[in-house]
Each structure stands twice: as C-alpha cells, then as structure tokens.
Amino acid sequence: MKRDYYEVLGTDRNASSEDIKRAYRRLARQYHPDVNPGDKDAAEKFKEINEAYQVLSDEEKRAAYDRFGHSAFERGGEGNYGGFGTDFDPFGDFSNFGDIFDFLFGGGTQYRRERRPRPTKGQDINVEVTLDFEEAAQGVEKEISFSRLEVCSECQGIGGKQRVTCPHCQGRGEVRHTQTSFFGSVVTARPCSYCQGRGWITEDTCPLCRGNGKVKAKRKIKVKIPAGVDSGHRLRVAGEGGAGENGGPSGDLYVYVEVRPHPILERKGSDLYYDLELSYPQLVLGDEVEIPTLRGPEKIRIPAGTESGTSLRLRGKGLPDPQSGSRGDQIIRVKLRMPRRLTTEHRQTLEKLLELERVENNIDGNGDNRKQGRVFERLKETFTRPE
Ligand SMILES: [Zn+2]
Ligand SMILES: [Zn+2]
To answer: Where is 25: in which H helix or E strand?
Structure first.
C-alpha cells in the first residue's frame, strides 16, 4: 500500500510549495544514498521521498493527486499521467552528492548555460622610464620600447587561411547535453571545445602565429611626458597594450616614471627647496646673493634683520603641476653660517662687537629692543665702513 505523499514529506495538505520544497530538501539530504551507503531502507525511503516531491512540486500533478489520490498516476487510472515510469532508476543519475542539489530544486526543465568566450580587453603593459631632473621639469618626448601581443598580420587574427563552420557544434559555439531524470530534464549548454565556443575553426593553420591569431611583437613608441612629472607618477597610453580577445579592445600601456634628483635643489611635490647659509652680518644688514634656480643662477635680496631659520618664498619658481600646469614655488631656507676659521681681523672686529654689546647691556640691564636696535646701527657702521 502506497503511503500518502503528504505524509511521506511530513507536510499537511495545505502546505505551500515553499514548505514542500523545504521538507523535501531536508529529507533528501537525510536519506540520500551517498549519505547512507548500503542502507536499503534509506534507499527505499529516498525513492519514496522523490516520488512524493515529483508530484507535489508540480501544480498540475498535485491537483490531480489531491483529487484522485495515487490512482491519478496509475496506468488506466482517472488521471492522465500514465503512471511513473518503472523503467528508470532515480539513483542512476546521481553519482555525486553535490550534483543532486544543484539540480533537484529548480523543478521542471532547467537550462544551464556555461559562459561562452566574451570579448575581453587585451593585456595592460607596464614599462619604466627614468628621466633627468631637467627632462621632468620641462617635459620631454621619450621613445619607449616594449613587447606586446599583436593581431597576426599574416592571417588577421583568424589563425589560418579561412574560417569554416565548426563541424562539431554546427557553428553554434555550444554543445547541449540533455539529462532526463525523474525530476524533469536538465539541458546543459557548454562551449564547444572543438572551436573554443567561437562556432568556427580555421583551415590551413597560419605558419606565422601557428593558429593563435596573435604574435609577440617588439614595439617602440614615442610618449609625450608632461612637464612636472615626479617619481612614482604613472602615465597611461590608451590602447597601446596587448590585443584584445574575441573582438575586445586592446589593453593599455602604463609608463611608470622615475626622476633623478637635482644635484642641489630638493623637490617636494611642485616646490623646490634650497638651503642658503648666510653670515651674521649678512643676516643683520641684509644683502644681495646669487642662488641656483631651475632657470639658472638668480640674484635675490636678503632683507636686513633676517633671522636664521626664516624661509623666503619665490613664487612660481617651482615645477609645474603635470595636471593643472600651475607652478609651485622655490623656497629658500635661510640659516646662519658659523665661521669655520677666523682671521685676526675677523677676531678683532668680533671682539669689538662683543665689547660694544657688553657696554650696552651693562647700561640697560638686559637691554630692550630699542637698545638692541642701536647696537645693530653701530654694527652696521662697523661693517659698512669703507676700507
Ligand atoms: Zn564548435
Ligand atoms: Zn596568423
């Protein structure tokens, strides 16, 4: 005597299709023959569960079953399903536990399509270029050598003399496999392995690319490098990389820039730094000095009373920004230069200065700024006295 299908799945007659699916899934996992090797009872049970699910998961069959019970599916019965085939083994198709769950739960006929080859962008190529500081500062055109995969010039990428329809898939590019089972049929479309899913093959393989359709080629191209690039910058030259696949676009060429440092000027972004050492009198009295800049030596004024540690900024004397073109600054870091060696004259002058300062300080205690100002005045006289 056949058990009631709802009883088999442990659901009631009003169960939703979701409930039925869930109940079936749980039981199928529990009684699957792969989980219970050699267990005849489990195998029987699994068969029963599948049979129940096959009917209850199908709206039409479920309605027939609700109306006529098991007789709906018996040969000559009141339903028109003609009975379940006794000529197949529901276990025969499932050799592996993973497969079954993939394909049991959709119900009906499933189409599974594996991806066919798609147009893909060609390979990106990275190259490095080292520039002198001046080249980077002014911009330069550089010849860059690299190798890339190119479409074969002999066969235009076909790989042979001509294309002919793939005899294996009749040009469809895919091969269909239909698996019919207890639960319906599953149609799997796989890319044709004979033609790699293209639908065509080539005759008379091209001797240059040996059928690949592509050849490795050495290339030299001129790349315009904008003024102001710095080490670590990357330039993209679109479309100069490897040839694409299946009609996809070419890859890009990436030029990684390395810039040799300037012998004197220190670079930080678009700004340039220069350390300028000045003597005490130069700081006190001010002076005009020559400093190196990007455009050669240049004279600048040091204002009187410049303190050691001050920075002077020369606007727009730095490097251009390669994107915006706006220029950075040159920054002069002023420092006191300590004399390494004193001549007698130097020493005498400085001693005189020291003496002067002592006198000033003794009169005025520690001396206020005004008094110090006077010291500077006298100093100025000392240093500017004509020889
Ligand atoms: Zn084919
Ligand atoms: Zn070729």
So the answer is: helix 17-31
CA gap 258, 142 in Å, rounded:
13
Q: Which residues surround ligand 1, an ion (CB under 5 A)?
A: 166, 168-169, 192, 194-195
Q: Take residue 309 and report the two structure tokens written for it.
A: 């540690």
Kindly state the percentage of the chain with pLDDT values over 70.
81
What CA–CA distance (Å, rounded) separates 159 from 20? 54
Detail the DSSP E strand segments found in 75-199. Answer: 110-113, 125-131, 140-151, 160-165, 174-181, 184-191
Task: Give distance in angstroms: CA of 156 to centre of ligand 2.
Answer: 6
Task: Note whether 331 and 366 are same-domain residues.
Answer: no
Measured in angstroms, how far is the CA atom of residue 116 from the centroid of ligand 1? Answer: 11
Give me ligand 2 centre to Cα 205, in Å.
Answer: 8
Ligand closest to CA 212: 2
Q: Are residues 145 and 247 in the same domain?
A: yes
Collapse the DSSP code of 226 into the 3-class scheme (helix H, G, I; strand E, B; otherwise coil) and give the result.
coil
Q: Verify that 327 and 357 share a domain, yes or no.
A: no
* Structure token pair of residue 236: 């993209």
pLDDT at 103 over 50: no
How many structural domains does the chain have?
Answer: 4
Which residues have a Cβ under 8 Å from the Cβ of 337 and sit 6 or more positions away?
Answer: 277, 278, 279
Q: What does the radius of gyration of the chain's CA atoms come to, in whole angstroms?
A: 44
* pLDDT tens track for 136-195: 999 999 999 999 999 999 988 888 888 889 999 998 888 888 777 766 777 788 888 888
Residue 71's domain is classified under what CATH number? 1.10.287.110
Look at residue 92 and tell me if it is in a domain. Answer: yes
pLDDT score of 265: 95
Residue 306 has pLDDT above 70, yes or no: yes
Query: Rounded distance, CA 279 to CA 342, Å?
Result: 13
- Tell me, yes or no, whether 117 lies in a domain: no
- Token pair 């100025």 is found at 380
The structure's pTM equals 0.55
Ligand sitting nearest the alpha carbon of 198? 1
- CA distance readout (Å), 70 to 64, 76, 84: 9, 12, 11
Instruction: For residues 384 and 172, give the distance between their C-alpha atoms in angstroms, rounded to a whole number.
Output: 97
Q: What separation in Å is there between the alpha carbon of 194 and the centre of ligand 2?
A: 19
Expressed as residue numbers, the domain containing 371 is 344-384
Is residue 238 domain-resident? yes
Q: Please check whether residues 294 and 241 belong to one and the same domain.
A: no
